[in-house]
Amino acid sequence: MSVKSLEFLLFLSTVFLLYWLGVKKKGYQNGVLLLSSYVFYAYFDWRFLFLLLAISSISFLCGIIIIKKPTVKKIFNTLNIVVCASILGVFKYFDFFSANVKLLLSEIGVHADVPTLNLILPVGISFYIFQAISYTVDIYRKTITPSNNILEYFTYISFFPKLMAGPIERAENMLPQISVSRSFDYALAVDGMRQMLWGFFKKSVIADSVVNLVNILWPQYKMLGGGTLIVTVFMYTVQIYCDFSGYSDIAVGCGKLFGIRMTQNFDMPYFSRNIREFWRKWNISLMRWFRDYVYFPLGGSRCSKKKACLNTLIVFLISGLWHGANWTFVAWGAYHACLFLPLIICNGQKYKELIANNKMLPSIKEFLQVILTFFLVMMGWVLFRSDSISNAFCYFFHMFSDSIFDINRTVNELRSNSFCLVRIVNFIVVMIIVEWIQRGKEHALQIDNIGFLKLRAVRWFMYIVLILCILYFSGEQSEFIYVNF
Question: pTM of the prediction?
Answer without folding.
Answer: 0.92
